[in-house]
Structures are given as C-alpha cells and as structure tokens.
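Much of the work behind modern protein science is quiet bookkeeping, done one molecule at a time. The protein below has been through that process, and both of its lines are reproduced in full.
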Amino acid sequence: MLKFLTKLDYLLKETFLGLHRGGWMNWAAVSTVAVLLFLFGISLQTSWQVEKLLHQFGSQLEVSVYLEPSARGESIETIIAKMPEVATIKTITKEQAWTKLVKEMGISDIEGATQQLDGNPLVDEIKVKAINSQVVPDLATQLAKIPVVDTVQYVDEAVRRIAQLHRGLNWVTLTITLILTLTSIAVTSITIRLVLVARKREIEIMQLVGATSTWIYLPFILQGITFGILGGAVAWSFISLVQQLLNKLLTNQPEFIQFLTNGLQLTSLQILLLPVILLSFGATVGLIGSLFALRRA
C-alpha cells in the first residue's frame, strides 16, 4: 500500500510540475478544449430538446376538421365515428367558436359584432382523436375526402419541419465538433511537446538510471487528460450559466412560450449525463493529444 501511495505521489508531483512549466500554453489548451466542449454540449442539449419536441408533436393524436360554411358538424359525426382509426370526436359549432372568440377579444356586444361582419364568419369544427399517432396521416386523408369537409389540419407538417431542423443541426454539430476536436488535439499535443522539450535533460537522466518509458511519460499523459477534464468543467459551468440566464429571461414570457420551454426541459438522467459526457470527451481529447506528442519521444 505504501509503495502504491509513493508511486501515486510521484505521478501527481510530476504532472503538476509539467502543468507548471507549460505556462500560458496550458490556458491555451484548456480554453480550446473548453470552447469545443461548450459548443458540443450546447449542440447536444439542443439536439435532446428537439428530439423531445419531435416526440411531443409526433404523439399528438388530434385532427382538426373544418367544414364548409353551409355544413353542420352533426351531419357527419356518425360517418366519422364509424372509422376504425377514430377514438373520440368533439364538435365545436361555429356559434360556440364565435362566442368564445368574441369574448377573448373583449367585445361585450356579441350580436353587434356579428351584424357588423354580416353574420358569423366561422365554420363548424370537429376535433377527431385518433387511436394512435401512426394512423393520423391516413385518418386525415380519409376525413379530407368527405364531401362537406373544407380543410383538415394536424401537426404532420410541423413534425417534418422540426425533423429537418434536427437533421441539419446534427450535421452542423458533427462538422463543428470534428474541426474543434482536431484543433484541441493539436493544441494539447503542442503544449505537451513543449513541456517535453523543456524537460528533455531530466528525461535523458531518468532513462540512464533505468526508468521505463511508461514511468517516464505517464505524467505527460495525465497532464493531457487534466487539460481535457478542466476544459470539460469550464464548459459545463458556462452551459449551466447560460441555462440559468435563459430561464430568467423566459420567466415573464407569454404562456405559449413558457409551455414550450417547460416541455423542452431535460430529464434528470440527461442532466446528470451531460457533464459526464463532457468530462469524458475532454479527457479523451487530452489523452489523444498527449499520445500524439509522445509518439516521437
């Protein structure tokens, strides 16, 4: 046990000595990794949120059916109810919709408003709930074929647009992450290499007295891993700060925006997983950078 602690103490001292001799290049390495992981973390978090949004929209089972002005909802309720894809239906008459709209607009004289517009401009609407999200497109197609139906709306178009955004975001994230990863590895490698050059004489002496290559170069590998872990910690701190600022800004926003924001909150597992991913990614980048620096040593 004492032997192990002695070796550990030596490795930590040598790693700290290497960090000390790295000077301002240490900050260059850590900041480069931090920028990489910050952008990666933001992109990953956004990707998770968009996926959740896709799931939310994709799980919507309701189809809105708007009839022609002269048609009444009661006339086709039976036809719709017999469709096997339908779970429930609810008819909102144009009178009900008009009364609700006028009240929301703050107009107390409903009859006067109706007369000014030469009658009720709205139409009957039937809200049709499907048995599951997979049958929604087929159900919408069937409903649109009913003669008195004017328009059928559901969230399929929104889902497609969000899915396209998600794919585009993933490609942009992949490209940026790849470029910054290579840059971080290069900066880390250069930093370790400079420390190696500064300690060249010490390394030669250690080799002469019989120290193994693993024992000599392991502190440099630990130094690179330290760069990555520090960069991950800095990135996570900034991501948390940005998240807090956004939450404060959205506090007094309209209810719809708050609803979307609450719906896009990460799960407890994702909140715990994000810093682990950032620290692991950073440590991996630091390790690779160190190995590149040591490959010619």
Summary: The beta strands are 62-67, 86-92, 125-130, 149-153. The first helix runs from residue 2 to 22.
